[in-house]
Each structure stands twice: as C-alpha cells, then as structure tokens.
Predict the 3D structure of the following.
Amino acid sequence: MSRSALRAARRELVTAAGWTEGRIERRLHGEVIELTKLSAEGPPPRDRLDAHIETLEELAPDAGDGADHVERAVDRIREVRREIAE
C-alpha cells in the first residue's frame, strides 16, 4: 500500500507543479524526485516522511492553484506514515 500511496502523492505533486512556476515548481519537482528515491529504498523511515510532510505544508500556501494537489499529496504521505506506525 505504501508504494501506491507514494506514487499517488508524486502524481499530485507533478500536477501541482504544473500550476506553479519558478522556485515553487522546482521545489515540488525536487520533492517528487525525493519521494521516488524514498519509495525505491523499501519501507520509508518515519522521520523522512515527516520531513516531506513539513516541507510540503510550507510550500502549499505558495502553490497557488496547485495548493489542493499539494494538500492531497500530504494526505497520501500521512497515510503511509500511519501505515508504518502500525
């Protein structure tokens, strides 16, 4: 489940990046890359998931029309975080 949820989060971030430009777009694409690496490593560590959640929550207000997609990505990452905690 965690891989599919991370994949869904990455798709949401790519969509959000399409609604932004400049620094925010680059940071969102950077998060996509980092989440891809994270999902390839096996079960993701909770502290790294927390760091992604924190970063994305900071980016969401500046994402303009893509903010809803960023929030959905955060929800997906939280879903993975809860799954790992169980």
Summary: The mean pLDDT is 93.
